């Protein structure tokens, strides 16, 4: 952790969450192998008018792999020099961790195959074993996948961060334990936490921006902003723009059935959200 992140983790939250003065931030929810939606979102963000004294921030909230069929193309986009004028932060999701665990210890982590790992293997051109495959077949499948993943992709996956802090906002993949300081959060807190965190009303010194929990529409209240809208099955990828004390939803994809495919949906909200966002 950097000295700046440590200082951020130890300071109290203000009454109203604000992004750092003079900066604009963006966060993108779970992508899950939807490279086409990611390309649209990057183009949308790149076209946003940004004014500030420092480069805008772009945080990817994790879960780039599994479930969708364009995993390799998704990592190609993430590893490319897109939006070079942005400060980019790439967070670790539970699916990236599960993929890496399978590569390192396939016999102990065969459950990853049922979490969307089959789609990831297919995207890299590797024949996936069945869930009940023999120990030998699992080990050979992990070896084949390791060789099929380009070194640039592997380096990217192993460099992912656990969280990012900016102003009154904490960016994580899944959630946090509000009864622990940020510096003491565990992987289970940050990568897997769901209902325990969302139902906990303990006082917390950050407004948390997260993915992981797929919801029909983005959700936000004083404590959190949830951006996972299940891109791989809903066809909608969601993001948020943060500036001062305002938050703006950005979304690409087909939206509701009655909407034009790939329509841009953008809504601006106040600092206090108390219910699910209506798109």
Question: What features would you describe in this structure?
Answer:
This protein has 279 residues and is α/β, with parallel strands linked by helices. Helices cover 29% and strands 18% of the residues. The chain has 10 helices and 11 strands. A 6-stranded mixed sheet has the order 3-2-1-9-10-11. A hairpin with a 2-residue loop joins strand 9 and strand 10. Helix 2 runs parallel beside helix 3. The radius of gyration is 19 Å and the shape is globular.
Major beta-sheet overview: 6 strands, mixed
Order of helices and strands: HEHEHEHHHHEEHHEEEHEEE
Mean pLDDT: 85
- Please provide the count of β strands: 11
How is the topology of this model organized?
Elements: H1 3-9, E1 24-28, H2 35-46, E2 57-60, H3 71-79, E3 87-90, H4 94-104, H5 117-123, H6 135-148, H7 151-157, E4 164-166, E5 169-171, H8 187-191, H9 195-198, E6 207-210, E7 219-220, E8 224-226, H10 231-234, E9 236-243, E10 246-253, E11 265-269
Parallel strand pairs: 1-2, 2-3, 5-6, 6-8
Antiparallel strand pairs: 1-9, 4-5, 7-8, 9-10, 10-11
């Amino acid at each position: 952790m950097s000295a700046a992140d440590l200082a951020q983790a130890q300071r109290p939250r203000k009454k109203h969450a604000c992004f750092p003065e003079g900066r604009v931030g963006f966060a993108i929810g779970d992508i899950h192998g939807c490279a086409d939606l990611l390309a649209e979102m990057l183009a949308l963000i790149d076209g946003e008018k940004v004014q500030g004294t420092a480069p805008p921030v772009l945080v990817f909230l994790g879960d780039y792999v599994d479930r969708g069929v364009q995993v390799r193309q998704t990592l190609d986009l993430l590893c490319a020099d897109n939006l070079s004028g942005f400060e980019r932060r790439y967070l670790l999701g539970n699916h990236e961790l599960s993929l890496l665990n399978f590569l390192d210890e396939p016999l102990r982590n065969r459950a990853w195959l049922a979490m969307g790992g089959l789609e990831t293997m297919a995207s890299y051109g590797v024949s996936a074993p069945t869930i009940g495959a023999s120990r030998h077949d699992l080990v050979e499948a992990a070896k084949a996948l390791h060789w099929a993943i380009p070194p640039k992709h592997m380096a990217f996956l192993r460099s992912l961060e656990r969280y990012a802090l900016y102003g009154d906002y904490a960016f994580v993949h899944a959630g946090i334990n509000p009864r622990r300081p940020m510096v003491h959060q565990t992987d289970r807190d940050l990568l897997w936490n769901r209902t325990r965190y969302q139902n906990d009303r303990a006082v917390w010194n950050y407004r948390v921006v997260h993915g992981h929990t797929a919801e029909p529409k983005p959700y936000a209240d004083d404590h959190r902003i949830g951006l996972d809208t299940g891109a791989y099955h809903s066809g909608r990828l969601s993001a948020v723009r943060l500036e001062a004390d305002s938050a703006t939803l950005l979304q690409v994809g087909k939206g509701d059935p009655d909407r034009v495919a790939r329509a841009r949906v953008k809504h601006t909200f106040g600092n206090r959200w108390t219910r699910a966002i209506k798109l």
